Amino acid sequence: MRIVVANVTEERRQLELAVPAERLAERLGDDDESELRAGGPIQASLEIYRVGEDLVISGTARTHLRAVCARCVEPFDLPLEAPVEMFLAEKARAAAEGFGEDDVALATFTGEEVDLAPLCFDQLLLALPSRLLCREACRGLCPQCGDNLNLTTCGCRPATIPGTGPLASLAEQLTARGRHG
Ligand SMILES: [Zn+2]
Ligand SMILES: [Zn+2]
Questions:
Q1: Least distant ligand from the CA of 132
Q2: Domain range holding 61?
Q3: Digit-coded pLDDT (tens) for 43-79
């Protein structure tokens, strides 16, 4: 959604923003292989107002993604919600004033309009969990038969790696003795 900068006044204005899922899909590089796909539009409730030559936006953005669980590899619905608290400065002015380049709460714009959609995308992506899990207690896949352990108990025994565990050194000694004796 584009905002005409000149139309923003010091009076706080409430905006309801809806960005179609396709735009989020573009941003995510959405294809059949992606672990993260757009699951719905972005909806944002924002307040916008002017402070001197700059703009402030403040509110919340939310959306749904289709994610793939890192443990069981099943797709799941991932609701995301993020605060959007940004200071928007005209790019040349921000540079001239020495505003912090790496200040995450600062965004710059050029020209007479600002597109608020990318700002909302960025804040939502920052809110992604570090591990994508369908649920915290996901039991994942059996390392032996590959069954989804959330859905079935496959009956495979837990994998034992030869040469480890408390009895390994005893077994080693016994075989060594057998060999020599
Ligand atoms: Zn899972
Ligand atoms: Zn199994």
A1: 1
A2: 2-126
A3: 999 999 999 989 999 999 999 999 999 999 999 999 9
